[in-house]
Design brief:
By secondary structure, this protein is an alpha+beta fold. Strands 1-2-3-4-5-6-7-8 form an eight-stranded mixed beta sheet. Strands 9-10-11-12-13-14-15 form a seven-stranded mixed beta sheet. A hairpin with a 5-residue loop joins β2 and β3. It is globular, with a radius of gyration of 18 Å. The termini are close together. The relative contact order is 0.15.
């Protein structure tokens, strides 16, 4: 397994990218697996979230002590990165999630620029595989004319997740603060539905790509294991949603999860699985391009970016 990172700031897109990606000048992170599989992460920008969105249900004193290790202010807004995973394997060029597009927050929606900087045309994408239906993962699948941005791609989503967002009752049950998520997801999935391939837990969605149900953040959230054995990597989506508290105290409930208790149980299962197999991970909201390793420390875990 070989991990590299290269700067693209010398490319012609540098000026545009440096304005749309406030966290860092553009970097492209690569992970080379066996069997000719290559993983890249491409930035869609970063979200801007109130601290209470994640930290609200957590014990304040212990939270502050842990965040101090990361030089984080527990009351300051959070600006998590958004890392889109791209897999090359033979003729397959698959995206895991599609970013936010232009309809969510102004600090995200940079995926088309990142693809251009990497020399990839959206028309060359063969598959778009969704971890879940939240705006920063789904809304970028359509362009500003409500047409599929990745027009030649097969779009794929877990059956449970698809059914949840397509259910007319979801907008009333999800809570007022997330009602717009439900409206936006249903509208986009209705447009993509004729081209949508649905799958279940444990299915091989592509050769060497196995879906794994990781519920809690959303009811049908999926992670994906790419590759085999010691050379495998897990695309986490938001099942492990940050590289600080979710690692240090995975058992704590987070306000970002739709079913906080289930999400915490899922994190426990994932950390046991990842550390037992010494598996590399790719996290949508993890720092340093999102690719790295997990180690145990101080009664919890630590993310080590590649």
């Amino acid at each position: 397994m070989n991990i590299t990172r290269r700067s693209l700031l010398a490319t012609s897109g540098a000026a545009l990218l440096s304005t749309t990606l406030p966290h860092r000048g553009w970097t492209e992170t690569r992970l080379q697996l066996g069997g000719g599989i290559e993983i890249l992460t491409l930035s869609d920008g970063n979200l801007t979230l109130p601290a209470e969105f994640i930290f609200g249900p957590m014990p304040k004193d212990e939270l502050a002590a842990i965040l101090a290790r990361y030089n984080m202010d527990p009351s300051a807004p959070l600006t998590p990165p958004c890392n889109i995973t791209l897999m090359r394997h033979g003729d397959t060029l698959a995206l895991f999630d599609a970013g936010s597009g232009t309809g969510f927050q102004s600090s995200v929606g940079a995926l088309p620029d990142a693809l251009a900087a990497a020399g990839i045309d959206p028309m060359d994408i063969t598959h778009v595989i969704f971890t879940h239906g939240h705006p920063d993962h789904l809304w970028g699948a359509l362009d500003d004319f409500d047409e599929a941005l990745f027009a030649n791609a097969t779009h794929m989503m877990g059956q449970t997740e698809f059914d949840y967002w397509m259910d007319d009752a979801t907008v009333d049950s999800i809570g007022a603060e997330r009602a717009s998520f439900a409206v936006g997801a249903k509208r986009r999935l209705e447009i993509l539905a004729d081209d949508m391939v649905l799958f279940g837990d444990g299915e091989m969605v592509l050769p060497d790509v196995r879906a794994q149900l990781t519920p809690g953040h959303t009811p049908g959230h999926m992670a994906f294991v790419i590759g085999q054995g010691a050379d495998a990597v897990m695309v986490l989506g938001d099942a492990i949603g940050n590289d600080h508290i979710a690692f240090a105290r995975p058992e704590w409930t987070s306000g970002s999860d739709q079913d906080p208790e289930m999400a915490a149980a899922t994190r426990g299962v994932l950390f046991a699985q990842i550390t037992a197999a010494d598996m590399a991970v790719v996290g949508f909201h993890l720092q340093g391009g999102g690719i790295g390793r997990v180690t145990q420390a101080d009664g919890g875990f630590v993310f080590q970016p590649a």
